[in-house]
Amino acid sequence: MRLRFLAVISVLSVATVASASDPQLLKLVMPDAKVDSGVDIDKVMLTPFGRFFLNQLPAPDSGFQEFVTATGFDPRRDIHEIVMASPGDPGKKSGLILVRGDFDSAKIMGLAKSMGQVAQNYKGVDILSGGGGKAKAISQALAFLSNSIAIAGDVDSVRGAIDRRSSGSGVSDAGLSSKVASSSVSQDAWVVSIVPISSFAGAVPNKNVSGALQGDLIKGIQQSSGGVRFGSTIEISGELTARNDQDASSLADVVKFFMSMAQMSSPTSGNSEVSSLLHNLTVNTEANAVKVSLSIPENEVEMLIKMGAQHHAPRI
To answer: Which tens digit of pLDDT belongs to each residue from 46-89?
Structure first.
């Protein structure tokens, strides 16, 4: 039961979901946020892919059912939106997750406390930590602002969101705020960043990838965004903003080169489906921006996911 509770809390702590139509969530985002990402779960679950995804989840075990019975909260049904935001500083590991759902916060907090979790009150809101008491610094925290909004993240970010309950205005960067608004309206899943991609090189454990992120071409990428729109056809789009038009043109040429290489190697490596999908991938430049788009029939995505699951299934 304890492990099941912690697993559900972990889901809330790593999910990345958002909706521009909910200003109550967006105003809780820290003003200095530079990276936002999200998925509108309610929208996705109305699509064929959403139903397919639910069917792929493992059957709930007795521990999960025990948690649902004790709290009245079922994450498969009761999470509607989540906003994730971060200042985008890999060295600080700070961030905030805002969840809109259906919670019985009293039951959930009561269960957590009964299992030894520690709650500290901050401006009238109980903040749940991983334990350790008042003498120990809290690295991660969870709190409920109401029975419809939960917040999670490092303790400073959670306290900041509590501070912004009544007077928050959200992201201060006008460009990021505008991009978040447009992306979350037009896309079901999206990510927007105004942090140069090369800034994350130090946080990547793989040395080869880290080195590639520090290359001159990647250093020229100042902003990035992407999104997915679900339906009978799944539409994927992305945009990379370079320092200038010349950098954008060079970046587009590199992307096209790797596309061609992948298309040529896929049939010989037995990945003809990947080659077929790449034929639908388009790359264009507009001034200093590189725009990528890909349309995939939803049933083909299901097929690829099933094939991947079979490939990684343990052999007896």
So the answer is: 999 999 988 888 888 888 999 999 999 999 899 998 889 999 88
Residue 174 lies in a domain: no
Tokens 């500083």: give the residue: 89
Q: How many CB atoms lie within 10 A of CB 195?
A: 19
The domain in which residue 59 lies consists of: 2-163
Q: Residue 16's closest CA among 31, 46, 36?
A: 36
pLDDT digits (tens, 9 = 90+) for 90-123: 777 889 999 999 999 999 999 988 888 888 999 9
> What pTM value is reported for the model?
0.80
Helices assigned H by DSSP within the chain: 2-14, 23-26, 41-44, 48-56, 62-71, 75-78, 105-114, 155-163, 174-186, 207-213, 216-219, 245-268, 272-278, 298-312
Comparing C-alpha atoms, which of 252, 245, 241, 88 is closest to residue 179?
241
Q: Please choose, from the candidates 190, 179, 186, 17, the residue with its C-alpha nearest in 3D space to the C-alpha of residue 96.
A: 17
Longest distance between any two alpha carbons in the chain, whole Å: 63
Cβ contacts of 110 within 8 Å, gap of 6 or more: none
Indicate if 127 and 21 belong to the same structural domain: yes
Shared domain for 137 and 32, answered yes or no, is: yes
In a domain, 171, yes or no: no
Give the three-state DSSP class for 101: strand
Q: Is position 284 within any domain?
A: yes
